[in-house]
Each structure stands twice: as C-alpha cells, then as structure tokens.
Design brief:
about 200 residues, about 0% strand, homodimer, DNA-binding, 9 helices, elongated, mainly alpha
Chain lengths: ~200, ~200
DNA sequence: TTACAAAACGAACGTTCGTGCTATTTTGGC
DNA sequence: GCCAAAATAGCACGAACGTTCGTTTTGTAA
C-alpha cells in the first residue's frame, strides 16, 4: 500500500517521457532527469535499478499516454470510415507535440539495438497498426470500403503517409506538408472506397 | 598539392560514415573513430577542429556516396517511368545497407537540433526529392504519366512509402515488408498513369 | 511512540566525452 | 639532403555518464 514511492516513480516517468520526446531516449540521462526533478541521482536510480529498465518504463509510459490521448479518443468516432479518418487525424495531432512523435524518434534510435527497450517499442507500434487495420475491417463491414481491400496493406500505406508527414513537417519544415499529407491520405481513402481504381 | 592529409581525411570520413550508418551520428565519437583507424584522438581531431565540423563533413561524405552509388546509376535508366521506378528501387537497395539509410536515421536525430549539420542534411534530402520530382516531370513529358499529375506530390508520396519500407523492414522486421512496399508503389504508379479513370 | 521498511541522499568509482596545448614525426619542394 | 610546413602524437583538462555504497531521512503500521 505504499503510495509515496509510486507517486515519485510516476513523476519521474512523466518527466522522462517529456524529455525523451524532445531529446530522444538516449538524451535522457539520469543526472539530468534528477536535476530537473530535484532528486538525487542515486535516489532516482534506485527506482529502476538500471538505465535500460528506466528506458523500458519510459516506453510503457509513452504507450499509456498515447492510448489515453490519441487512440481512445479516436476510437470514439463512428464505426467505419469516420473512425479510420479519426485515427489518422489524431495521430497527426500527436505528431505536433513538442519534439514530435516519441515513437518515430525512438524507432530510429533503437532499430539496431536489440533488447527489452526495442521489444517494448515494437509492441506499442504493432498495437497501433493493428488498431488501424481493425478499423479498416469494420469500414469494410459497414460497406464504406470495398470488399477486396487488404486492411493490413491500408495500415502500411497510411502509416507511411504519417511518417512522411512527420518528416516534412518536423525536419524539412515544408510549409506545404499538411496539404500534401491530406491529399495523400484522401487518395488512400478514395482507393479504399471505389471498387474500381484510384484517383487523385 | 598536399596529398597525405587529404588521403587521411578521406579515410576518416569513409570510416566515420560507415560507423554513423550503424551507430548514428552521435554514436561516432572521436575516440572510437581514432581507435578504429589507428590514429590518435588529437591527430584526428586536428583535421576538423570540432565535432560539429566532423559531423557536417560526414553528412557531405554520405551525400557523395549516395549520389555515386544510388542516384547516378538510377539516372541512367530510360527517361520516363522506368527512371522513376529505378530511383525508387535503387533507394530500397540503399536502405538495405547495414545500419539502414543514413539519412533517415540522421534526420530523426537532428530534427530538433538546428545548426550546420541539420542544414547539410536538409540540403541532401531536398536534392533527392527534387530529383524524383524532375524524373516525374519527364515521365509526364514522355506521356507515361497523366498531365495533371503533381510531381512534388508524387515525390512526397513515394518518399513516404520509402520511409514505411524502412520502418517495416529494419524496425518491425516484418517479413511482408517488401511485398507491401511493392504494392504501395505500384499503386502510386498506377494512379500516376491513368489520364482517365471512372469517377465515383 | 516505537520499530522497521521504504525512500532519498551524498560521495565516490571508473569511463568516456570533446577539446586545448605542446612536442615530435613525416612530408614535399627546392 | 635540407628545411619549412603539414601531419600526427602525447598528455591533460573538466564535465558528464551509469553505477555502487553506506548513511540518513521519511513514511507507516503496530
């Protein structure tokens, strides 16, 4: 029933997630984090036992926040195409946080570093991709999308556009990024709808 | 004039680029690099004067290699659609290097760190995007693609698919990544071709 | 109120980081 | 083969890194 420890632990993770979004996972050093929270390095360290354990906990915290702030609200949209659109649009919003999308940054950081942190991150992204595919499946059931549409393929292409949006917005700072993103996604939707072919 | 210095300098950059592709730009420390090359830290350091200058030079080296190994060979493909396809396929190959695509990794690393390194990286990516758009324009001239196609929009969407391919291959290790990528790109091409498609 | 556990602290550890100096070696033009 | 210039080495620095340790403070249940 201890409360104080859990409280501190959560305060640490909350700040760590905020820092990691801006500075990257490796950018969160224990010393910096402790200073920011007015804790001693050792006191903070004791909560996790290792840097790696901290990183895993941060990823899980990020998942929690993402589900709460982005996934769940999107899932409240009406079944079918509206929900698919909501998932996409909410993600775009999520990507406008200071520092951008935590998961995109962390993926690039960990893509060649096997370990529990990488595993936790993969799990989170699969969850997201699955949720999109499920929503697309529902849209098929509702008759919004064509019968022979592959939900996983759609998820792949939609996620690709999200990545493009992220890069053009955050890195290239292209003023047309939003317009391009919208056009690209509308193209995906149009293709998913029609039993015939795409348009643009 | 002086050859020895330039020779060493290039050997440094070559190894640094190789390391950076695998470990990230920040992962290339001067000490590590010197050890790997059997040089002293200070001797190596003297070639660049600062870590930041080294990073900029590494990015320029990466550009050089990319242009030589990927861009130029692709540009030798026949004008029009074949060249557009070649650009895409060559990029996919480039992304299968150990460590993946240097530019994708570096973009994520620098997207919130203004400075000369970031500028050099942006320049390189714009060059690549422009080249795609130009090839698409030619494909329009050749009558391969429809007249009202927006080359920059195509470049955005194609690049998005490349990013998706990179993530699904390297990070998620999805065995279907290649198939998904091909399908997505074929969709883009199909859409770019048809001048007249049924509307909904 | 006392007793015990949980939480936080401060100092130090061995490394590694980028960078600054000052020698020493190597190189290339004469 | 000499000699300036260029290239490289050697050494030291202050700071930051993750981690360990023994100790002190704080919280909580009996």
């Amino acid at each position: 029933m201890s409360t104080k420890g859990d409280e501190t632990r959560h305060a640490i993770l909350s700040k760590a997630f905020e820092l990691a979004t801006v500075a990257g996972l490796e950018g969160v050093s224990i010393g910096r984090l402790a200073e920011e929270l007015d804790l001693s390095k050792s006191g903070l360290f004791a909560h996790f036992g290792s840097k790696e354990a901290l990183q895993v906990a941060v990823i899980e915290e990020a998942s929690r926040v993402f589900i709460q702030d982005t996934l769940l609200p999107a899932l409240r949209a009406a079944r079918g195409e509206p929900r698919v659109r909501a998932l996409f649009n909410r993600w775009l919003e999520w990507g406008t946080r200071p520092g951008g999308c935590f998961f995109v940054a962390a993926s690039a950081e960990l893509d060649d570093r096997p370990g529990p942190a990488r595993d936790a991150l993969i799990k989170a992204q699969h969850q997201w991709l699955d949720e999109i595919a499920i929503a697309v499946g529902i849209a098929k059931d509702e008759g919004h999308f064509r019968d022979d549409l592959d939900p996983q393929q759609f998820a792949f292409e939609a996620y690709s556009v999200m990545l493009g949006a992220h890069l053009f917005n955050r890195f290239l700072r292209d003023p047309q990024a939003s317009a391009r993103t919208r056009r690209a996604f509308d193209g995906l939707i149009a293709d998913a709808r029609a039993p015939h072919r795409k348009r643009n």
